[in-house]
C-alpha cells in the first residue's frame, strides 16, 4: 500500500501577472454597489462546496464567478466560469470585477497574488472534516452578508450530525456493524483510509470502514488485501457516472469468494458530489449509503 497525494495544479504566476497588467494596470478593484447602505460583495468561488453554501444560504446572487465543476444548484450554471478546478484564470476572474475570492485548498495560493495587488480580497474557507462544515457555512455567511440564514443552516447541519453520531452510539449491543470497503477507484485500486473525509461517512452510515486499517487518507491497496479482509459491503464511489462498477467488481479474479460479491451487496451509481464535497448536501450522501446498508442487512447473517 502507498499513500496517494492530492492537491490542485498551479497556474503560472507570470501569466497571471500579465493578465492583471493587461486588464487593470495599476488600478484597484472596483467598488461593489451599495444596498441599503451596506456593500454587497461580488464573490468568486473557486470550490464547489463554497458555491453550494452560497446558494444554500440565499446568497447566490452575490456570486459572479465559479469553476467549471461548480454544478450545484442548477442555478449555478448561469454564473460565468472563471477557470477549472484548481486552475483559476486570473484574466477571467478580473473580467467579473469581484471584490472577494473564496477558496478551500489551493495547492499554491501564491497564484492569487496578482488579485491582491489589484485590491481584490481573498479568504480561505477551512473545511476538511464534517465538523468543519458548520463553521465554514457561518464564515461564508458572514462574508456574503447572510449571517442569519447561515446560522440557521449551520445549526441544522450540526444538529443532524449529532443525531447521526448519537444513533450510532445507541445501536443495540447485538446489532453488528457490517464491514464495508469504499472503492474510490478501480485501477489502481484505491480506498478511503482512516483519516479520509469519506471514511467518516461510511462509519456514520452504520458500517466499519475496511480502510480504517490504514493510517492515511486516500490510499492504494492490492486486490489481495481486499480479498483477505472479505468485506460484507462494497461501495463503488467512482467520480464518474454510470452503473457498471458492480459487474466489474464481480468479474475480478478471486473476488467471487468475497462476501459482498456472493450476496449481491456491491453498490454503485452514487452521486459522488454528495460524498466528496464537504458542504451542506453531504448529509444526503450519508443517507444514500444508509439506504444501501439497510438493504444489505436483509441478506447479511
Task: Walk me through what this model shows.
This protein folds into two domains: 149 residues, Rossmann fold (3-Layer(aba) Sandwich); 119 residues, Rossmann fold, CATH 3.40.50. It has twelve helices and 15 strands. Strands 1, 10, 11, 12, 13, 14 and 15 form a seven-stranded mixed β-sheet that branches. A four-stranded parallel β-sheet has the order 5-4-8-9, covered by helices on one side. A two-stranded antiparallel ribbon has the order 2-3. The two termini are 31 Å apart. A hairpin with a 2-residue loop joins β10 and β11. 38% of the residues lie in helices and 16% in strands. It has 301 residues and is of the alpha/beta class.
CATH superfamily heading of the largest domain: Nitrogenase molybdenum iron protein domain
CATH architecture of the largest domain: 3-Layer(aba) Sandwich
Low-confidence stretches: 1-37
Query: For the residues shown, what is the average pLDDT?
Result: 86
Shape: elongated
Question: Could you give a short account of the major beta sheet?
Answer: 7 strands, mixed
What number of domains?
A: 2
Order of helices and strands: EHEEEHEEEHEHEHHEEHEEHEHHEHH
Q: What is the end-to-end distance? A: 31 Å
Global structural class: alpha/beta
Q: What is the β-strand count?
A: 15
Q: Report the C-alpha radius of gyration, rounded.
A: 22 Å
Q: What is the name of the CATH topology of the largest domain?
A: Rossmann fold
Amino acid at each position: 500500500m502507498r499513500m496517494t497525494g492530492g492537491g490542485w495544479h498551479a497556474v503560472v504566476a507570470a501569466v497571471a501577472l500579465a493578465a492583471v497588467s493587461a486588464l487593470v494596470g495599476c488600478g484597484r478593484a472596483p467598488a461593489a454597489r451599495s444596498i441599503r447602505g451596506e456593500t454587497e460583495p461580488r464573490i468568486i468561488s473557486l470550490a464547489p462546496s463554497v458555491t453550494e453554501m452560497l446558494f444554500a444560504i440565499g446568497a447566490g446572487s452575490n456570486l459572479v464567478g465559479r469553476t467549471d465543476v461548480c454544478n450545484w444548484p442548477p442555478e449555478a450554471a448561469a454564473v460565468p466560469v472563471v477557470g477549472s478546478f484548481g486552475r483559476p484564470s486570473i484574466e477571467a476572474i478580473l473580467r467579473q470585477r469581484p471584490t472577494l475570492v473564496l477558496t478551500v485548498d489551493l495547492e499554491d495560493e501564491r497564484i492569487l497574488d496578482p488579485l491582491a495587488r489589484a485590491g481584490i480580497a481573498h479568504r480561505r474557507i477551512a473545511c476538511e472534516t464534517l465538523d468543519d462544515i458548520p463553521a465554514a457555512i457561518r464564515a461564508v455567511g458572514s462574508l456574503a452578508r447572510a449571517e442569519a440564514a447561515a446560522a440557521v443552516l449551520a445549526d441544522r447541519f450540526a444538529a443532524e450530525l449529532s443525531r447521526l453520531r448519537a444513533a450510532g452510539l445507541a445501536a443495540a449491543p447485538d446489532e453488528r456493524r457490517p464491514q464495508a470497503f469504499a472503492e474510490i477507484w478501480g485501477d489502481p485500486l484505491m480506498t478511503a483510509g482512516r483519516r479520509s473525509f469519506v471514511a467518516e461517512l461510511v462509519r456514520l452510515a452504520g458500517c466499519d470502514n475496511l480502510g480504517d486499517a490504514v493510517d492515511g487518507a486516500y490510499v492504494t491497496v492490492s486486490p489481495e488485501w481486499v480479498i483477505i479482509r472479505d468485506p460484507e459491503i462494497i461501495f463503488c464511489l467512482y467520480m464518474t457516472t454510470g452503473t457498471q462498477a458492480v459487474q466489474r467488481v464481480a468479474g475480478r479474479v478471486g473476488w467471487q469468494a468475497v462476501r459482498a460479491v456472493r450476496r449481491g451487496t456491491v453498490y454503485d451509481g452514487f452521486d459522488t458530489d454528495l460524498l466528496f464535497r464537504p458542504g451542506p448536501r453531504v448529509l444526503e450522501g450519508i443517507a444514500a449509503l444508509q439506504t444501501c446498508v439497510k438493504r444489505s442487512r436483509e441478506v447479511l447473517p
